[in-house]
Design a protein that fits this description.
This protein has helices spanning about 25-35, 45-55, 85-95, 135-145, 150-160, 160-170, 170-180, 185-190, 195-205, 235-240, 255, 280-290, 310-320, 330-340, 370, 390-395, 425-430, 450-455; strands at about 15-20, 35-40, 60, 75-80, 100, 115-120, 120-125, 215-220, 245, 265, 270, 275, 295-300, 325, 350-355, 375-380, 405-410, 420-425, 440-445. The chain has about 450 residues and is α/β, with parallel strands linked by helices. The protein folds into four domains: about 15-115, NAD(P)-binding Rossmann-like Domain (Rossmann fold); about 150-205, no CATH class; about 215-330, Tetrapyrrole methylase, N-terminal domain (Cobalt-precorrin-4 Transmethylase, domain 1, 3-Layer(aba) Sandwich), CATH 3.40.1010.10; about 335-455, Tetrapyrrole methylase, C-terminal domain (Methyltransferase, Cobalt-precorrin-4 Transmethylase, Domain 2, 2-Layer Sandwich). It has a five-stranded parallel beta sheet, sandwiched between helices. The protein has a five-stranded parallel beta sheet with strand order 10-9-13-8-14, sandwiched between helices. A five-stranded mixed beta sheet has the order 15-16-19-17-18, with helices on one face. The protein is globular, with a radius of gyration of 30 Å.
């Protein structure tokens, strides 16, 4: 993050505009809306600036810039076309540690103006770091379209009930649940419809009548194979609500970054023979956090119920009477095969698909190999990279054709995705020449032949 977004109280502070063009009128509007006094330095100002000066909104102090004009100033904006003056303004302001913006010159600026969506007291701002202004406008339109104009009234009306709600619900978890329910429920709809009096009466009536439990809840959320765009809407909503995020090593960084900044993040990643926390300890951790009244998202790569041990975790939650929800995710087989151009089934090649774990609970790879050697079937091995030699040798020994196509997909659906296509006979030797990192999925079957025709992602 190149710029730190801040909301700074500037009422009554002084801003100095340097220049004479219409760009400064737009900057003036934003600064004035924050309650600042505006001063101008510049000769031959444009008509818009003249009108603002004549009306007393802007006070002109000088025709030409000099450093002493920075005295008692809190923020500086320069739109002077003379590059030498712009450089002087930048140097002088930075020497005084004053925030300075040189219009269209991020190198000389210590801050940039974001694009603001004003629903006071609710204010949102977006920025592209000064790189792509058009993108900033597009993002602003997206955000603005989701924020009704009445959000400001909703915030003001809600704040008038804050003391009553705090008194009625002393625990922070209770208060949070109360506001989450009503700021996205009937109370909010009344405000959005312009029925403020009815909204006040409704909230007055429900305070104290609703029991807000102090017990937390656990959400087992499938994070998918890596691409954050593959999250479900429900998964995204719960991730953003979580007080604590418990995640494993298969959860990608972009997905973790969707959590609230103040949310606690606990890594419990498991690798073969290297468990940060044993599964039993993870189960107990989820119970303990929920008993503390926290909303816990247990993020799992792929789907919680497909080799994700989700069943083991909710067994413990159910036994401990902890409320929980399960949110399915796109499993690695579906995501990785799609991004690799390998359909799991195809009328001409495969009429069934089988998901198989590459190693069992005891660490072995003792599987019903004979059942896997069937015509018209696709095999998908999860967590099978370290056992690739065993997988291939066992399948061949049970009668699988040595030339059967095999694909290894590393970090599927992410920008780091790598795909190696080979055969069952040559796979063990082929991986020696390519660096494949976990997680790596293995797909075996005739459908792999379609990759060259259907690939689109890499």
């Amino acid at each position: 993050m190149e710029y730190l977004p801040l909301f700074v109280r500037m009422q009554g502070k002084k801003a100095l505009l340097i220049g004479n063009n219409e760009t400064l009128t737009r900057k003036h509007t934003l600064l004035k809306s924050a309650g600042m006094e505006i001063y101008l330095v510049g000769d031959a100002p444009c008509q818009e600036l003249i009108e603002l000066i004549d009306s007393g909104v802007i006070k002109k102090t000088a025709d030409t810039y000099s450093e002493n004009l920075l005295d008692n100033i809190s923020i500086v904006v320069c739109s002077n076309e003379d590059s030498a003056i712009a450089q002087r303004v930048s140097n002088d302001a930075m020497a005084r540690e004053l925030p300075v913006n040189i219009v269209n010159n991020t190198e000389l600026s210590s801050f940039i103006f974001p694009s603001v969506i004003d629903r006071s007291p609710i204010v949102a701002a977006v920025s592209s770091g000064g790189q792509i202004p058009v993108m900033t406008r597009i993002l602003r339109n997206l955000v603005e379209s989701t924020l009704p104009f009445a959000y400001g009234r909703l915030a003001q009306l809600s704040s008038s009930f804050r003391a009553k709600v705090n008194a009625q619900y002393p625990a922070i978890n209770q208060r949070r649940r109360f506001w989450e329910k009503h700021l996205a429920g009937y109370f909010a709809e009344l405000v959005f419809s312009g029925k403020d009096k009815e909204a006040e009466a409704y909230l007055e009536d429900v305070i104290g009548k609703e029991s807000m439990s102090e017990t937390g809840e656990v959400y087992l959320v499938g994070a998918g194979p890596g691409d954050p765009d593959l999250l479900t809407f429900r998964a995204l909503r719960l991730i953003r609500q979580a007080d604590v995020v418990v995640y494993d090593r298969l959860v990608s960084t972009p997905i973790l970054e969707l959590a609230r900044q103040d949310a606690e993040k606990i890594h419990v990643g498991k690798e073969r023979s290297n468990h940060t926390l044993p599964q039993e300890k993870i189960n107990q951790l989820l119970v303990r956090l929920a008993k503390e009244g926290k909303r816990v998202v247990r993020l799992k790569g792929g789907d919680p119920f497909i080799f994700g041990r989700g069943g083991e975790e909710i067994e413990e939650l159910a036994a401990s009477e902890v409320p929980f929800q399960v949110v399915p995710g796109i499993t690695a087989a579906s995501g990785c095969s799609s991004y690799s151009g390998i359909p799991l089934t195809h009328r001409d090649y495969s009429q069934s698909v089988r998901f198989i774990t590459g190693h069992l609970k005891d660490g072995s790879c003792d599987l019903p190999w004979q059942e896997f050697v069937t015509k018209g079937q696709t095999l998908v091995f999860y967590m099978g990279l370290t056992g690739l030699d065993v997988i291939c040798s066992q399948l061949i020994s049970c009668g699988m054709d040595r030339s059967t196509p095999l694909a290894l997909i590393s970090k599927g659906t992410t920008p780091e995705q790598k795909v190696l296509t080979t055969t069952v006979e040559d796979a063990t030797e082929a991986v020696k020449s390519v660096e494949l990192k976990a997680p790596t999925l293995i797909i075996i079957g005739e459908v792999v032949r379609l990759r060259e025709k259907l690939r689109w992602f890499d």
